[in-house]
Amino acid sequence: MNKIITTDICVIGAGSGGLSVAAGAVQMGAKVVLIEKGKMGGDCLNTGCVPSKALLAAGHAAENARRASRFGVSTGPVEIDFGRAIDHVHSVIAGIAPHDSVERFEELGCTVIQAEARFTGPGEVIAGETTIKAKRFVIATGSRAAVPPIPGLETVCYFTNETIFENRVRPEHLIIIGGGPIGLEMAQAHHQLGAKVTVIEMGTILPKDDPDLVAVIRDRIKADGISLYEGAKTKEILDVNDQIRVVIEHQGIEITLEGSHLLLATGRKPNVENLGLKDAGIDYTDRGISVDARLRTSNKKVFAIGDITGGLQFTHMAGYDAGIVIRNALFRLPAKVDHSAVPWVTYTNPELAQVGLTEKTAREQYGDDIRVVTWDYAENDRARAEAETEGFIKVITKPNGRILGAAIVGRQAGELIGVWSLAISKKMKIGAIAGMIAPYPTLGELSKRVAGAWYTPSLFGEKTRKLVRFLLRFA
């Protein structure tokens, strides 16, 4: 017999965004129903951010051992147990999983239903044998790996991010189609763990990032021995004697590549299917659910957050969206999203981090009415001490010093970008960064130094020298 539950908020999807809404709302006194048909924690915990960073950590450890001789440390040949590296990945997932578990959310006070959810009307959802009527709904069903229509792809076995972390056998030759963050991170991780790797990218790698910084990543992965084909069209994929043959067209030449394993890293597709969105009066396309600045759908009782909206596909954005929804749904505050200070990081070695406008987008908006300043890692004493001098920081400002964007490529770039995200979100000027006290010696000094360099032309110019000479007359 169908059970009916009446609640304040019904959250569909227990990924990072859905869990944030559910946990926040129930602890603030709302009655919450949380529905998830798959694994709690969603893509980020099980097949995305967490496992990829864990595998990268294993790869970086192997690479650090190989390079230890630069410090006078001899390690001998580095031996890789690929299966144990995968064990590490799953141990990290297992360590985090209790925080996202059914048990924890039931202890918080949520009603958790493990079933597929489908709208049967504007204010009603059915999940399994339960009908849920709610004052507000939140759709947080995320996205999945997009599979491109490549001739012959159906004839071979291939990985996506949803399956690659189940592979316990080191690939002899891993071919990766897609040169975005996922493709490059997995390329470097597997190469550092002893696999031969080839990356095929239809355009340019990391197209959303500043090309000056991307050039550092490109040079590094090529120097490491990863084969990279940019501007290449994948024409056909074949299974030849249990090997995967990939035919590409690169610079007008047809090239045939042969590998043992294939990874597709060609973007994401929002999970809009089978939700009954039309029955709920919710507008959507193949690119996701349409939302306004308050993250409301065309049905104002229903919010959508995270990857399902087709916007910025970052775990931290889903968490940010959750805060916007809670303010709207619980407190009736007209909170709106602001994407001007959204940071993102590619966790290769070196890392690449970006927040705000790139130099290109800044010039498109402001023309030449901007200033660009850079500072090299090679000028940082901590980077020199650790023999990690590759990379630089770039900051874009208005002529009055207001910070528009910042980008960092180098060691721990993801950790360093936070101060610039704060500065942009608070509409700070670069003088605030130049005036802060940074501990010595740290990589954090890079931010202070690049900010100080912004003042160099005026501070050490002829006008300043004349002023100092004049004042010294009265000393």
UniProtKB/TrEMBL annotation:
Needed cofactors: FAD
Keyword Nucleus recorded: no
InterPro entries reported for this sequence: FAD/NAD-bd_sf (IPR036188), FAD/NAD-binding_dom (IPR023753), FAD/NAD-linked_Rdtase_dimer_sf (IPR016156), Pyr_nuc-diS_OxRdtase (IPR001100), Pyr_nucl-diS_OxRdtase_dimer (IPR004099), Pyr_OxRdtase_I_AS (IPR012999)
SUPFAM superfamilies from the UniProt entry: FAD/NAD(P)-binding domain, FAD/NAD-linked reductases, dimerisation (C-terminal) domain
Entry keyword Lyase: no
Residue ranges crossing the lipid bilayer per the database entry: none
Family label: Belongs to the class-I pyridine nucleotide-disulfide oxidoreductase family.
The protein's name in its UniProt record: Dihydrolipoamide dehydrogenase
